[in-house]
Write a structure and sequence with these properties.
267 residues, alpha+beta, D-Maltodextrin-Binding Protein, domain 2, 2 domains, 7-stranded mixed sheet, 5-stranded mixed sheet
Length: 267
């Protein structure tokens, strides 16, 4: 199905647009990768590059053409159409540090939020030619290069002591992290944590400091793979700065651990 055909098929259009945006972003980013790519720091100290800005601009322009009535929230620019029922949430280059360092574990995040619910999510890693996608009610899928897509499922482990846990960014070796590290197996953090969770190789990933565009695709991907996303309050907001992705079988145990550690001991 072509993009033009998909635009007239409500069931397929949103996912096809997400794919189209990611396919647009990949070659632009790769044209800067390991080449002439000016980099500077944002106010919070995080890096941004000419590639981030170029991909952001291309996606915004394309969404303005394809879906001018939709809102747009991206990492690199001002929000467009705040308060719209439909909003695209984009990270032009997720993993800018990896990108500017010449490593391949980076990509583009595309998600669609409708009435406050993430309905479509897609992540791509252009260097490795990998992508993951999900749409509500249809499952979560992974594709490696030109191979056929495969449906992904989270693990079924539920005994906390047997589970594999990690966090991104890495948590400090004090307080809550000590308690969480003391159960199960702690996996060294890197950009592969969410793919590992989707592949059933992890049971929980703690997103300690993240923005909406980091969370958004993962919410629908993990939930369509059979898992769960929780914000710090036990809800599903991607705007609270942290959250837990899990296989849905151990997240309550983990929340109890976090609560116990944050509750002062009385004598």
């Amino acid at each position: 199905m072509s993009l033009d055909e998909a635009l007239h098929d409500d069931k397929q259009a949103d996912l096809e647009i997400a794919r189209h945006l990611a396919e647009l972003a990949g070659p632009i980013a790769l044209s800067y990768f390991r080449g002439d790519n000016r980099t500077w720091s944002k106010a919070d100290g995080s890096p941004v590059s000419a590639a981030d800005v170029a991909v952001d601009r291309a996606i915004r322009d394309e969404l303005g053409r394809l879906r001018p009535e939709d809102g747009i929230l991206t990492e690199e620019g001002e929000e467009v159409g705040a308060g719209q029922r439909r909003r695209w949430i984009i990270d032009p280059i997720d993993g800018t540090r990896e990108f500017v360092a010449g490593r391949g574990d980076w990509g583009t995040n595309v998600a669609l939020e409708v009435n406050g619910v993430i309905t479509v999510g897609l992540m791509t890693w252009p260097v490795h030619r990998l992508r993951w996608w999900a749409q509500r009610g249809t499952g979560a899928f992974f594709q490696d290069r030109d191979l056929e897509p495969t449906q992904v499922h989270v693990s079924s482990r539920h005994a906390l002591g047997e589970c594999r846990l990690s966090a991104w960014p890495d948590v400090e070796p004090t307080g809550t992290s000590l308690r969480v590290r003391s159960v199960g197996t702690w996996v060294a953090p890197d950009m592969t944590l969410l793919p590992k969770l989707l592949a059933g190789e992890l049971e929980a990933v703690f997103a300690m400091r993240a923005d909406p565009w980091n969370f958004a695709p993962g919410v629908v991907l993990v939930e369509e793979a059979g898992g769960r996303f929780q914000d710090p309050a036990g809800g599903r907001s991607i705007f609270l700065g942290s959250g837990i992705f899990s296989n849905g079988l151990i997240d309550e145990h983990v929340r109890q651990l976090l609560h116990q550690e944050s509750t002062p001991t009385t004598t």
